[in-house]
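Progress against Task 2.4 (sequence-to-structure conversion) is shown through the following example record, which the project officer requested during the mid-term review.
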Amino acid sequence: MRRGLLLSLILLMLIGLPGSGLAQLNDDYKELQGIIDIHAHVGPATELSISRTLDAIEAAQLAQRHGMRAINLKQHYLETASWAYLVSRVVPGIKVFGGIALNRSVGGLNVNAIEQVATFKGGFGRVVYMPTFESEFYNPNSPIGVPVSKNGQLLPAVFDVLKVVAKYDMALSTGHSSPAESLMIIKAAKDAGVTRIFVQHPALNRINMSVEMQKEAVKMGALLEYVLGEALGNVKDFEHWTGLIKAVGPENVVIGTDLGQWGRSTPTDGYKVVIPRMLKAGFTQAQLDMMMKTNPARLLGLEKW
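Structure tokens generated for the chain above:
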């Protein structure tokens, strides 16, 4: 009898552990109440992709336990709207969304692939990313590069993509485009009727968008995505990161984690490390809420939810 009771207690404990495959989690702690991670990297991944620490279910469970409002699943090579639907069925108490990055595995600037994500039952497909790891900017003179411009002009296929994004009121990320390409994409997106636009990784060394260009992007109607993964280095890295946010204005910034890689902090631990540092660096709680709650909600269409 005692042995059976002990086994039952062990099973109940396992239900609340990420990785157990079970989603009935207790509300153990809520220190990240209401935060939305717009940039959650999750598995499973193919052998040709990048390994991740957490799969989509584990990431949602962890976020739910910390009281987060929503996470947006990002994958460079697979759509994640279908993942979001399934995870939402398994993990209650948190909203889960996905999208599609326009790399070669989905056909590049493929309008049909975007429409499949946009029309996925339940509205789980919310974000379209211009090419990321396979952008031509990241892969110059390479056959794997997916171009968005030529001779300083956007390709016709980009305009076709923007029409679909506008039609379904999705969020548009500039992906890993060059700073100049990002500004062209933002202008064309606004002209096409896209209302949810963000510049991805403007502070990343490989992109290195100047403060002046970031401010221009804001004037054109875009938000600027800064990620916790860039703030977890040494003190100098953190001070540079926060200095850029102050320069462009916290009201114009959306913060995601860009975490989930092997050997790095989990997304929730990233928040728990960086938030106290940001408060100590002079940011107000209202500014943090704007960057981590309000602006991500606007991009995902959750303003009125």
